[in-house]
Amino acid sequence: MFDPRNEIVGFFSNGRISASTEYGTRYISVQLREDNEDATLQYDDIGLLLLDPPELTSQVIKVNGKTTEDTVTIVANLWIYRTEGMKNPETFVTSVLDTIQNTIIDNHLDATNNRLYQFDYVVSIQSETKELIRKAIMLTVKQFKIR
Fold this sequence. Notes:
The protein has a single domain, classed as STM4215-like (2-Layer Sandwich), CATH 3.30.2000. The protein starts with a helix and ends with a strand. By secondary structure, the protein is an alpha+beta fold. The protein is built from 2 helices and 8 strands, in the order αβββββαβββ. The model has no long low-confidence stretch (mean pLDDT about 85).
């Protein structure tokens, strides 16, 4: 199974997502979730996009064309802290989600690795505190091999 998470982090400048608030540009850090590792915010970031390890969802093998297709699903957990500078936090979250989706669309085809990246859907997750906004983003990556 392949792990495309490093490529996804590379889609974003300096591994960060930028979005505008009423008081200027704020940043979301993009990191990989590894086993038993706590994620930490860097610099003055107000959020985190944490990419879970990929899960193999399907494999298609075409005998005549000698083509294999591996598909993995990646859950990207988005955590954003509400700050005093956010008058409308939902607008900021929408801006971040739009940036992520547009970045995936712009980089959807990786000809070097024969991969196709897809932004599937977003699920809201109930947070334990009012200061934290949480979303889960489902990403699908297909890798094609011709033998």
